[in-house]
TrEMBL record:
It comes from Candida oxycetoniae. Pfam families: 1-cysPrx_C, AhpC-TSA. One of its GO terms (molecular function) is thioredoxin peroxidase activity. PANTHER family: MCG48959-RELATED, PEROXIREDOXIN PRX1, MITOCHONDRIAL. Keywords: Antioxidant, Oxidoreductase, Peroxidase, Redox-active center. This is Thioredoxin domain-containing protein. The keyword Oxidoreductase applies. Thiol-specific peroxidase that catalyzes the reduction of hydrogen peroxide and organic hydroperoxides to water and alcohols, respectively.
Amino acid sequence: MISRVSVIRKCFVSTPYVGPRFRPIQQLRFVSFKQVDQPRIRIGSIAPNFKVDTTKGPIDFHEYIGDSWVILFSHPADYTPVCTTELGAFSNLKPEFDKRGVKLIGLSTEGVDSHKGWIKDIEEVQTNGKEFSFPIIADGKREVAYKYDMVTEEDFGALEQGKTVATIRSVYIIDPLKKIRLIMTYPASTGRNTSEVLRVIDALQLSDAKGVATPVDWTVGKEVIIPPTVSDEDAKAKFGDFRKVKPYLRFTKV
């Protein structure tokens, strides 16, 4: 009897990509998209690696991350109205992400040529003609979407049949250690809030640097929370003055 592990191992095949400047890459051919085999990723998981074609050429995802923060966000298809507005908004905010050492990378379930045509539309209607300057992954086989658990319960049947699904609409914030720090998944009808993604980056980077937590609706410059694990004495030494509302709820500025 052949085990599932041995079957999956046989699915790794060397597939040369016929195109300029492309080297042969290893691609995973899934036996199926069965839900029982669905990978599970959580906050704190190492971001699954993959090698894939993009509008900026082939990438190894872990090499692309390097020592940067990365935002990976996905779309179910090209030329979709809500996704067009989102990609344009991320492109317009790219200078702000650059200041924070954050790379952007999109994903859609069609090929590079289709992506490039879509980018022209985005530049026309969303970026006022400015260049769209970050890569979009070509995930035509939905393998990255499957690996990152982007599909809802109802869409597994469509995924296995190779049909378009409407729920590959997730956002992942990944840190320089390649750990997933935030996951958000949106329905097809609801556009994402790029300002919220930027706010979370600020909060995560501040928390990592200063050992603090951020309260509801926090933005840069507002008070932060001193973790309950830090004593009053240590808090005074580390942060100086702080505001104590409850023994477990103390605010300061950093």
